[in-house]
Amino acid sequence: MKVIILGACGGMGRYVAKSISSFKEIDNLGIADLNKGDAEILASQLGSHAKGIGVDINDTDKLLSILFDYDVVLNTVGPFFKFGFKILQTSLDANCHYMDICDDWEPTERMLELNSKAKEKNLLAILGLGASPGITNLLGKIAIDNLDKAHTIYTGWNLEEAQPEDISSQKETNAAMIHGIEQISGKVKIFKDNSFKMVSPLKKLKISYPNHGTYNAYIFGHPEAITFPYHHKDITNSVNLAHGKKSTILILRIIRQLINLKVMTKNIAAKFLEWLERKESSQNYIQENSLPEIYALAVGLKNGNEETVGVSLDGTLTRDLTMGEATGNPLSIGLKMFLNKEISLRGVVAPESNFIDHKKLLMEIYRSFGMEDAKIRIDKSWS
Q1: What CATH number is attached to the domain comprising 307?
Q2: What pLDDT score was predicted for residue 83?
């Protein structure tokens, strides 16, 4: 099988490249990046089957000609609100299967509209197979399956756990920071009362989590709010949430206000956020009396009663986990299962669709983090 990674030298892409370079099913591995020199250096470290390729994804004709030589595209080029739809469309035009770590809701809506095109070409495209989205979607699917009929799904994660990447080919503002700024400014889309609505990000919600308590969480623009009602028609409310220290939320709200008042540009805000994240990551953050670090919470009917179920992970990390590894490993594991023919579905889908054994995929992801004792934790409001 011939596989190409776009954005392979970035903070996320290089983890994917190193992870899949040993897959025996891959006989031709394309390491594609805007910086050809970095791509060639990385490829030289991965084996004779890897080739460094320089490509500007804005040059659609050049990208298309390159993709025609491959079977599967792994897209790690961000920010996805700028590039996601175009790259998926080009991948399908080149008759390639496709997987990405898309974390923006705006392109996700448009990318799902390519479902019929993918099916007609007998191609699979999995969107958002990272941490959030990705792991959160898998947890959400398990939560929904624990109820007789779910109507509300929350996915959430801890802002304090993201550790920036020290190695990347990016010479300009970090794409992950640009994504974050985009999703806390302006308006974001959620699914509420069975329809999509535009709301202000960082709005506070009270979340009652079984066996944990009631905590504050904050609306954050993400694809999960779009994809859950797409795949699960009984869902009438779908929101992605973030939580963290009060000081972190306050800083983000100040940044949001400065952007909305046009006092600060999004680019400057992203640079400041990157500096702040690197500064904060050097300090140990101990989470106490809070929501799980990453989770999904479903509300609905169980045995005729309104109930709530939360799904998270129990386990011990044996090493520090960077954002790149947490986001890149799920994509690698998903590719492995596809290459092993464990995924037969075709079309454009998100991780919570019925394309795979969600529990198996989730446990494989956590084992790749070194969590040999990982277990799926299910907290229920009923006994």
Answers
A1: 3.30.360.10
A2: 96
